[in-house]
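Milestone M4 deliverable, item 7.
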Amino acid sequence: MFSFLSPTIQNLLNQFEKALNDLDRSDTVAVNEIFEYQFQKPGKRLRPLLLLTLAKIIGYEPRHMQYACAIELIHNATLAHDDVVDESSLRRGSPTINATYGNSTSVLFGDYLFTKAIKILLKDSSDRLTLSLVDNFVDTINVMSEGEIKQLMESHSTDLSEEVYYQIIYAKTTKLIELACILAPMVKYSQNHPVTVACKSYGYHLGNAFQIIDDVIDYTSSSKTMGKQAGDDFSEGKITLPLIRFFSVASKDKSDFVKKLLDDNQNSGSANRTENFEKVKEVLNEYNCFEFCREQAKKEIESAKVSLSIFEDCEFKQDLLNIADYILKRVS
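Output delivered:
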């Protein structure tokens, strides 16, 4: 997936996969079975990748690998919960945990991953660092939960502002990416140190861009390419940046037309939902909403790159610049 990465980082990612696979297993066979099922098809591993690449710039230590495992467990815990909330049946091209084992199991497995991640942080760290790490992880989980609740409460709100949208995506997506980026310098520096602040800024802008592009992809890509159902946001009534832009520039007639499709969609069968989705895509294209979103994501990527100016040029800094470009160009 990240064929553009330097050999050193490619090798580090391979080590990460082994470290993740070598994590202590549960005494409960069923939990281990679900763990293997969840991780048999790796995702992008973006968060561990960011953490480990920044660690190579700042000064890599073995505990960075453990933090990378913890951050990936947190990410997958949120996916297990999100798939229940969104009633998703497909992820990474395979049935979700909730589709295979049921909603209750998926929720409990997510809880298991959360606590497993915290246990990793409590191992082999100084008291100061442990407290700081756990505090940051718990705060991130708290913020992500708040973001998901806020998005649920704002679903179908066609007057949702860009400001609130950015609050939501920061909570549900950016916060965890931001955390991955500050875990690298936290071993060496305080949270207020310029290096930590720069890493946080990189993660912040990269996370925003990632979610904006994700929201575009949900409309413009295919289920086969994404490995999950296309149009899920529309089906669930989520008002993301493409729709927010549309409602801010469209004529009243067109706005009313799309609002009616959103309303009808809640009571339609799957065939009508597909038809409604195609109609909405056509209208959003007419108003260049996807192009607008890509431009906003491009601005975020440019800001992310500026954040890296604190580091001297090296192969790992180039990796981070290339990752930023990848975020902007991705289609899944």
